[in-house]
Amino acid sequence: MAKKELKYIFVSGGVISGVGKGTITASISRLLSDHGYKVAPVKIDMYLNLDAGTIRPAEHGEVFVLDDGLECDQDLGNYERFLGRSLNKNNYMTSGQVYYSVIQRERSFGYNGEDVETIPHITDEIINRIRKAGEDDEADIVIVELGGTVGEYQNGIFFEASRLIELKNPSNVIHIHVAYLPVPVNLGEMKTKPVQQSVMLLNAMGIQPDFVLIRSSENLDDPRRKKISIYCKIPIEAVIETPDVDTIYKVPLILSEQNLDTLILKKFNLPVKEKESHKKWKNVVKNIDKSQNNELLKIGIIGKYFKIGSFSLADVYISVLESLKHAYWSVNRKTDIVWIDGEDIENGKFEQLNKIKGMVVPGGFGTRAIEGILKAIEFARVNNIPYLGLCYGMQLATIEFARNVCGLKDANTTEIDKNTKHPVIHIIPEQRKKLLAKEYGASMRLGAWPAIIKKDSNAYKAYQTETISERHRHRYEFNNSYRDVLEKKGLMITGTSPDGHIVEIIEIKDHPFFIATQFHPEFKSNPLNPHPLFKAFIEACL
């Protein structure tokens, strides 16, 4: 049986980074899957790290974790949220992975004595990885997001690989260029020169885009659309506008209204099929719009990574933020999320805590702002404010309970205090060896693991099942030596690993809603299926 002839879409960016290539890639993936085609999205990052696991969140945004344990870029989270299915390691590539594989092959004489060069050996490795992503997923179309912007020396080799794929079979490759059109305040006019320049850079690399997607704060008018069509050498219908919107989940509809999906399929000579599942997406967006007219529900996220100088970076907790939105919209409420820095609470600023109806403490590492976050958790526990703790939020909730309810004043995690008298959270034994050997990369407890939930619990009420599978990313865990002490005082262990050893979910007796998980439920929520824990949390806040 002959192999399926794969189609490829490459999405590049121009002018500035952060222009929304990930959302565009996710949206096109959604639209083509709505037509009944199997899509394999691939994110390429140009850094030399083997994965995103050792990069600071404030440096590169959230580290997203897949079922197979890969620590990757936050764009994979958007791909999954838009597609509503799990991806794997084939859907992510870095320069580090590519070069590492080529060097390993050279060391094992895999090139039979050839001198190993960037072209063709590095480009061949990139092409093989892109093809493998499609073949392993039995996909019809591979959509590749090229990280960074056109013209950077770091990512040029990936553009060259895309050119080589197109060279072999031009009818199977489409290139989509996403560029920003600024509207300078002093001029009050949208300027097209930046996109003209970035397309010229693409042309200089031997690539002619088939579509140019315009990102801007304003709608694109006809004179500028014509100008882009002329100077970028594309038909006028191939100039697609994607102005700023109040939610990224509207982007597929905006693209579809301009027939981008049908234009792509016609260019590939593929049938344009009925879009039944597209109606579900439209209904989600309708529900989002309807929710905007309803009452606000103020939820506080108590964190430590989002404040960088004068700016707050929501991308650090993007999956938590999106999961909360999904839950808000599912009960027809308008989102109202308050970012509260743990350091502010340490400095005695409690006023924001008095205004919130629920509290989320997300994952994290290290000592900064911990005492402030512990005070916030105590505030939620004492004042019966619904609480949802995620990973570190579960560990800190355990510490707070041990200190302030059980009287273990020195209780702590050994991550913060190696010599604590009461290590209620301690390192997983095999992790200790890895840290001693300085094995930091991809060495935590990662990926999807099963857990068993007790029936008489709020967690069970949320999930409506005893067995779940959730994604993890941690080195430290609940110390079972303190189980009896904490349980006698009202801490309930309502979820564990199947063997009962690892504590996965804790709750507090006689509290309206106090759930904390060792895993990261935020990695498995999407707008069509809000995560049950987030939905139960928002309902409790109401």
Q: Please identify which CATH superfamily of the largest domain we are dealing with.
A: P-loop containing nucleotide triphosphate hydrolases
Number of strands: 23
Low-pLDDT windows of residues: none
The computed structural class is alpha/beta
Strand order of the largest sheet: 13-10-14-15-23-22-21-18-19
The average pLDDT is 93
* CATH architecture annotation of the largest domain: 3-Layer(aba) Sandwich
- Could you tell me the strand content as a percent range? 15-25%
What count of helical segments does DSSP give? Answer: 19
C-alpha geometry: globular
The structural domain count equals: 2
Sheet with the most strands?
9 strands, mixed
Straight-line distance between termini: 57 Å
CATH topology of the largest domain: Rossmann fold
Which CATH C-level class of the largest domain is it? Alpha Beta
The helix fraction, in percent, is: 25-40%
Describe the structure.
The structure is a single chain. The chain is an alpha/beta fold and 542 residues long. The protein has 2 domains: 7-284, P-loop containing nucleotide triphosphate hydrolases (Rossmann fold), CATH 3.40.50.300; 294-541, Rossmann fold, CATH 3.40.50. The chain has a 9-stranded mixed sheet with strand order 13-10-14-15-23-22-21-18-19, with helices on both faces. The protein has a 7-stranded parallel sheet with strand order 5-2-6-1-7-8-9, sandwiched between helices. The protein has a 3-stranded mixed sheet with strand order 16-17-20. A hairpin with a 5-residue loop joins β22 (503-508) and β23. The termini are far apart. The relative contact order is 0.11.
